[in-house]
Amino acid sequence: QPVTTDMATLMHEVKKFASDKKVEIEMLKVREEYRREFLGNVSHELKTPLFTVQGYLSTLLDGAMSDKTVRKKYLERAEKGVERLIHIVQDLDMISKLEVGDLNLDLTDFDIVKLIQEVFDLLEIEASKKDILLLFDMRYNKPIMVRADAEKIEQVVINLVMNSIKYGKDKGSTEVSVESLTDKKIIVRINDNGVGIEKQHVPRLFERFYRVDQSGSRDAGGSGLGLSIVKHIIEAHGEKIYVESQYGKGSEFSFTLEKAFA
Ligand code: ADP
């Protein structure tokens, strides 16, 4: 399924059989196909918000401008569309860097508990819009030092907590915990009691542009790139990411990290 398989997996498959020129040509074709699909996906993603913005602006120019309340409403909607475009472009920027392996990890020792609390502060307002509680397992409310790229891991935690809010139910909760897994590893879990994910979608969630076709997904302003970014970052660290979900009940995303040994 070249439409959705990511480049690295695809090239790996093809390389296994790379013994002659013919195969080299095949590899070029695969790469070309990949590029075409990527561009196709990108323009498709950009079209919707662009047309939305254009729609509101032309309606304003066609006369809606004179009504003060309509004017404000339409300008706000146009602004939302632009915000969405910015978000998509930022995600695309990130994914293209990640997919060509152009990702320099800046490894340092830092406290993962503090990082999670900072992400909570950042997303508190977003969560409160849906009356969602952000909880941290207090048992581990002491520093837990890990060795990783702090900025990239912050992106991972933001994307996962943000998803738990986007796909969470009103008045629900998101609970994050950190646990020691082995001598060398810890595991971070992000648990929600939201809409959950039907079984058949689970294996494809981390593909870029893949979205479960559920109401709200698009409104939530996602690009379908969030989880793909998360997976790339975790795998660049040589770590693992897991998902468990029960449709209608909730989901748990978890990932491992290396403990810091100072
Ligand atoms: P999006 O930008 O659409 O949120 P993601 O890559 O972050 O893209 O997620 C892909 C899809 O996985 C989403 O469209 C959503 O359907 C599903 N998903 C992700 N996180 C959750 C969650 N916590 N609960 C339910 N569904 C989720």
Automatic annotation (TrEMBL):
<keyword id="KW-0418">Kinase</keyword>
<keyword id="KW-1133">Transmembrane helix</keyword>
<keyword id="KW-0472">Membrane</keyword>
<keyword id="KW-0808">Transferase</keyword>
<dbReference type="GO" id="GO:0005886">
    <property type="term" value="C:plasma membrane"/>
</dbReference>
<keyword id="KW-0902">Two-component regulatory system</keyword>
<dbReference type="GO" id="GO:0000155">
    <property type="term" value="F:phosphorelay sensor kinase activity"/>
</dbReference>
<dbReference type="GO" id="GO:0004721">
    <property type="term" value="F:phosphoprotein phosphatase activity"/>
</dbReference>
<feature type="domain" description="Histidine kinase">
    <location>
        <begin position="41"/>
        <end position="261"/>
    </location>
</feature>
<keyword id="KW-0812">Transmembrane</keyword>
<dbReference type="GO" id="GO:0016036">
    <property type="term" value="P:cellular response to phosphate starvation"/>
</dbReference>
<protein>
    <recommendedName>
        <fullName>histidine kinase</fullName>
        <ecNumber>2.7.13.3</ecNumber>
    </recommendedName>
</protein>
<keyword id="KW-0597">Phosphoprotein</keyword>
